[in-house]
Amino acid sequence: SQTLDTPNLISLVSTKLNFNMELPSEWLEPIVRVQTLSDTGSPVIPDRYIKPLPQRPSFNIQSDSQNIPIIDLYELTKGSATAQKAIMDQISIACREWGFFQVVNHGISGELVDGAREIWKEFFHQPMEVKQNYANAPKTYEGYGSRLGIQKGAILDWSDYFFLHYLPSKLKNHNKWPSQPPFLRGVTEEYSKEIVRLGNLLLWVFSINLGLQEDYLKGAFGGDDIGACLRVNFYPKCPQPDLTLGLSSHSDPGGMTFLLPDEHVSGLQVRKGDEWITVKPARHAIIVNIGDQIQVSWGRRAKVLTNGIYKSVEHRVIVNPDKERVSLAYFFNPKSDVLIKPATELVTSTKPALYQPMTYDDYRLFIRTKGPQGKSQ
Ligand code: OGA
Ligand code: NI
């Protein structure tokens, strides 16, 4: 039998990727707002939202104790060296075993967290004409959108969203952020600043946990030129939640994600082996997960050293018949033109690189063309 060695695997993957892709300037078919569909009150969803059987959610009863780890960050910056080490160890275990955890006492005030969520909920409750002013296009995805992926005839997810850039500063454009409700831009600006602080803190923690220089990952991400962008997800009520998903299974393409979940409505499910675990958010918690870029850079090392892997774990969102849900997903990404590849010191002739070098720009283009596809990318 023939084993697929790594170089072959890489060329196999390369042939599947077409780096000369370009995204169209307009969507290839008319955009339908899921919120509008939901508001009609129809008891059935259109065929386009019905998932094939194996992808449909199961609403199995889950024991109360099943949840992603909850980590209190208070002592990380304020505690003794011993206390600090204990928190770092919790993070290390969560990264290896789950790829997902929630943090509390993260330094972002409960008021700001609630305020950011509420003001974005208000945005989606404005009249459609107001939101349509920000209608997005596949080229940059910035603005008000209702689909991920461009393929004509694709089966769609039951959600709308708003996508905006915060970093690098040259991509930030307040005119592309909603001007209403009045305080939205200010609150989003303040929340973004805090997320970037938290992101830098965790890059520092991950670097130390992986036995690297404390500023290594930050450097590998492009130093102060990292990317930070926000997708606010809006999941309207759905009359047939057992047939569809709010967001199909995917792993996040970037570095890491900070998700502010809805306080009242659960919906995020994380894959653990063959199971889907529904996340139960703690009050004012922020959910952190590892993205594909950290898997590429560090997966191999983690595997060698810890017999576990820092992996970018699959997740999805289920919807609800009588409750809408809103979440703020902040993507913390490498600078878009830095080549992301396994660390040189970890690659030898007997342990070849598992991934080909690729910029985040190219990778994202690929993802944006295809939309959510589990872990296939
Ligand atoms: C995402 C995501 C989860 C959620 O936006 O990538 O996984 O709960 N969101 O909305
Ligand atoms: Ni995600």
Automatic annotation (TrEMBL):
One of its GO terms (biological process) is defense response. Its cofactor is Fe(2+); L-ascorbate. Pfam families: 2OG-FeII_Oxy (PF03171), DIOX_N (PF14226). Residues 225-334 form the Fe2OG dioxygenase domain. InterPro entries: DIOX_N, IPNS-like_FE2OG_OXY, IPNS-like_sf, Oxoglu/Fe-dep_dioxygenase_dom, Plant_2OG-oxidoreductases. The keyword Glycoprotein does not apply. Keywords: Dioxygenase, Iron, Jasmonic acid signaling pathway, Metal-binding, Oxidoreductase, Plant defense. The keyword Transferase does not apply. GO terms for molecular function: dioxygenase activity; jasmonic acid hydrolase; metal ion binding; oxidoreductase activity, acting on paired donors, with incorporation or reduction of molecular oxygen. It catalyses: jasmonate + 2-oxoglutarate + O2 = (1R,2R)-12-hydroxyjasmonate + succinate + CO2. It comes from the Eukaryota. Belongs to the iron/ascorbate-dependent oxidoreductase family. PANTHER family: OXOGLUTARATE/IRON-DEPENDENT DIOXYGENASE (PTHR47991). This is Fe2OG dioxygenase domain-containing protein. It comes from Ambrosia artemisiifolia (Common ragweed).
